[in-house]
Please model this.
Amino acid sequence: MKRFFATLLAAVGLLFVGVAISLFVDAARGKDVSDSLGGGGVCLAMALLAGLNSWRLYRPARIKAKKASPEELEHAALKCAAASGGKLTETGLSLDAGLSLDEAKRVLASLVDRGAAEIEVSSSGALVYAFPGLISEGEKQAAKPVEDA
Model:
């Protein structure tokens, strides 16, 4: 859902940039836009606000390993896995959550030990951690009672 709103805000920002550019181009061509130039500035300000909010919604979970509890590290790993479609590598977690590689390996190993993740191997030999509990909304809606499965 966050990605949707981030994309929507980015689109709104681009719309405001287009309007502002149009107003400034008209002014440069000598058209009387004296009453519209203030609107151009407002459009640029709105584009900046939309862009900043879009970035804030879309950025990955960043956490400092030295200050985070094991639960916070686990939560950051799960957020990163959810953002990447339910699969994650050690390097990806390290990059997205701002953890060291060793810390990312420990967090992912803990999640595997507890049954929250499974280890897969990519065609290039990289370890990929799959989170079967992270499913799409469509899969959740199509779920059947346990006795019917």
Summary: The first helix runs from residue 2 to 28.
